[in-house]
Design a protein that fits this description.
- With 266 residues, the chain is α/β, with parallel strands linked by helices.
- It is built from nine helices and twelve strands.
- Strand 7, helix 5 and strand 8 form a beta-alpha-beta unit.
- It binds 2'-monophosphoadenosine-5'-diphosphate (ATR).
Length: 266
């Protein structure tokens, strides 16, 4: 029987992860299956228990369960401080977070951005933002400001990382090298968060959402910034999870190119 993996979340129906992991498995000659589990909102632990009881080897975890996955883990990687997006089962339950590495690899390898010394604005202080702060700092960014609608959450997240500052959106000033949108505002169709004055010529504006042109990206482009969506991060975090599970890192370039071409045909 093939080793079994899956993405667990709610909703998961439109996820590209099974497609990505099938490509990785084929390229790396790994015999595995990767499925989707839509757990009820109050049924995360029960769904994971039953997947494990059936011999499942690992899970990717998406909204809204990343914090519950942290609780479920018996051991947690240092880089998965508060939120876990990858679980590995071999005897115990190991929790990790591959989103931060995914973002950094997309920026540095796929986009050729040197992150060292860069001035960065991270928008949002929820699970998505928490997952990437550590990796951006490790990549050597120079200054990091975290802005959030609820200031107390930005302050709490900044306080866990020496040298990082919290700000409201209204008090941001001056253009930055990199602006990462880690808010969920665009996802629910709410009014987008559009910080003023932070995009300059050459700013990289990165939206973690993928597969659509968001108001954030449109505003960035209009201001002369380089706008990019989170498709590369999606593929890179998947590759890092694959590495954790299978001990080998799949090549991401061809998979990302094929996925981008497929999405643009729609
Ligand atoms: P996720 O795991 O996607 O980060 P989350 O933990 O619910 O989900 O966090 C959502 C983030 O998007 C938060 O930073 C939230 O701001 P608040 O902490 O102030 O709630 C941000 N967000 C969501 N909707 C927003 C909106 N309409 N305007 C501004 N920020 C918004």
């Amino acid at each position: 029987m093939s080793d079994r993996y899956a993405l667990i979340g709610n909703p998961v129906a439109h996820s590209k992860s099974p497609w990505i992991h099938a490509r990785f498995a084929r390229a790396c000659r790994q015999d595995l299956e990767y499925g989707l589990i839509e757990a009820p909102l109050d049924g995360f632990a029960a769904a994971v228990d039953s997947f494990r009881a059936g011999g499942g080897k690992g899970l990717n975890v998406t909204l809204p369960f990343k914090e519950q996955a942290r609780q479920y883990s018996e051991r947690v990687a240092a880089r998965a401080a508060q939120v876990v997006n990858t679980l590995k089962f071999n005897g115990g339950v190991f929790g990790d977070n591959t989103d931060g590495v995914g973002l950094v690899r997309d920026l540095s390898i796929n986009m050729g951005v040197d992150l060292k010394g860069r001035r960065v604005l991270l928008m949002g202080a929820g699970g998505a933002a928490q997952g990437v702060v550590g990796a951006l700092l490790e990549a050597g960014v120079g200054q990091m400001v975290i802005a959030n609608r609820t200031m107390a959450r930005a302050e709490a997240l900044a306080a866990r990382h020496p040298g990082v500052r919290a700000s409201s959106y209204a008090s941001l000033s001056g253009s930055l090298d990199l602006v990462v949108n880690a808010t969920s505002s665009g996802l629910r169709g709410d009014a987008p968060v559009l910080p003023h004055g932070v995009f300059g010529l050459g700013t990289i504006a990165y939206d973690m959402v993928y597969g659509r042109d968001t108001p954030f990206l449109a505003a960035a482009r209009a201001a002369g910034a380089r706008a990019c969506d989170g498709l590369g991060m999606l593929v890179e975090q998947a590759a890092e999870s694959f590495l954790l599970w299978r001990g080998m890192r799949p090549e991401t370039g061809p998979v990302l190119a094929e996925l981008r071409a497929e999405l643009s045909r729609r």
